[in-house]
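Format notes (please read before filing issues)

Several people have asked whether sequences and structure tokens are stored in separate files. They are not. Every record keeps both together, in the order shown below: the sequence lines, then the token lines. Line labels are part of the format and must not be stripped during preprocessing.
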Amino acid sequence: MLDDRLLGQRFSLPDDKSTGTIAFFGVLYHYQVTGEPSAGLLVEVTAVTPLYLVVTAHQAVLDY
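Then the structure lines:
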């Protein structure tokens, strides 16, 4: 309900820190990485909290 349109959004991490900020739709959001962060890792927003976005590594799934 907070900003569910962000669920599923993907971006690459700019560095290997587990927290940071990212802009979506002209709004700056804080994010927190679950798992091991690395620079250039493609992550996906999996949860939205009042304080930050929870992001995890994107897993490519092929649909046949």
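For reference, the curators noted about this record: Strands lie at 10-12, 19-24, 27-33, 42-48, 53-57. The longest strand covers residues 27-33.
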